[in-house]
Amino acid sequence: MSRRRATEALPPRAANPWQQAKRLAEQTPDSRNRSVDFLRAISIFVVVIGHWIMSSPWWEADGDHMGHILTWAPWTHWLTWGLQVMPIFFFVGGYSNGITWDAAQRDHLPYGAWLAARLNRLLRPVLVLITFWTVIGIVATGAGVPAIYLTIGSQVAFVPTWFLAVYAIMVLLAPAMRMAWKRWGLGSIVLPLALTVVADLAYFWTDWTALCWWNYVTLWIIVHQLGFVWLDRRIQGRLIPWLLLLGGMATLYALTEYGPWPRSLVGVPGELISNSTPPRLPLLALAAAQFGFVLLIEKPLSKALSRGSTWTAVVLLSGLIMTVFLWHSTVMMLCYGAGFLFDGIGLHTFPGADGWWLQHWIWIGVFLLVLSGFVAVFSRFERASKASGTPPGAIRQVIGTIVFAFGLTLLALDGIDADNALGIRYGVIAWTFAGAFLLGLGPRRKTNS
Hints:
This protein is mainly α. Helix content is 69%, strand content 1%. It has 18 helices and 2 strands. The protein has helices at 3-9, 17-26, 34-54, 69-72, 80-83, 86-106, 111-142, 147-158, 161-184, 190-205, 215-231, 239-258, 281-305, 308-318, 321-341, 356-383, 394-414, 426-439; strands at residues 58-60, 63-65. It has a two-stranded antiparallel sheet with strand order 1-2. Helix 3 packs parallel to helix 15 (321-341) and helix 6 crosses helix 9 (161-184).
């Protein structure tokens, strides 16, 4: 066979990720609100960088120490006003859930099929992370690694999953919330707003402090509803967005300057009150400001995203963003662990001291490099998470989501380690996999249709 004919017989090379993203970008309809995709991706990226900035371990003669820059440098509490972007993700999620549910209604797609499509990509990649840390825990315990390392490492690694647990519940409720929005409009937030305010004030002025934990649902429902405001274009012009932006920031300042709420919009280790665990009223003020800002920049942002290369970059990042989000804390802890193994290399400067910030940005560069390798390995689970075949029934999926979310919450609170022969919380791990089974996140048999 000639060289030419032999070459022609070879299978075509797989397109590289950029080429794949470019093809998808070229197929994007003009009607798509590209700013939604951009904001979803960039908000997750800001969360990742924020977590990396705030981590601040160091090494001294007596060994390693874990720390948080918010503890050592109080001025950094102001940075959280820009780095706390979870409200953006939730109202962007409301927009996306609203538009897909409306489409499902038009196409007569049942709730169960819509739910499977929404939850599959969100939750399936988490199983890989849980499996990874299960193996790490068993191996580390067998090798005699001190339990404290597994405790801290897994706690930090699973902290981001609180968001997935809460957002999965928002997806469950989205059709009902959409129905409430179409019937009552802004009146649909009156009850959750009242419950949020009562719970937050009760924490400070009554003994009913446990009420504030329902804010994980009520407060994020309010923010999620903002996505419907955006989707249905209920706000026109620039006056109201400016009022939301300026009024939200003024309210945030007043609450944290004159009220009992702390300045930082994320939890500070050692402080009794956190604005995010559970979420409190300052986050609602921030959500209003961020929503106004997004409305103000939507048109110029959409125009910038119409450029081919810019939109291709967003499509590429959007296809990897869940992998980046799930693994960024694991990468950070593994890198720091390696540093501790080598006598604290690069970690001898106390957090906030002269030279620490330069050193810290070098570490962030290392995290980016290592994370790129993890993304190359694990992003296949995100890309392959499109549902196929017949999904489980809607009731089974609802139960499975609640079970899965509960397991994720326990992992986010306390990590994966336990005082037993295996060194892992196998009951909690089994709980999450039971939820995954009910959701049908495992291999699914295809129908003959």
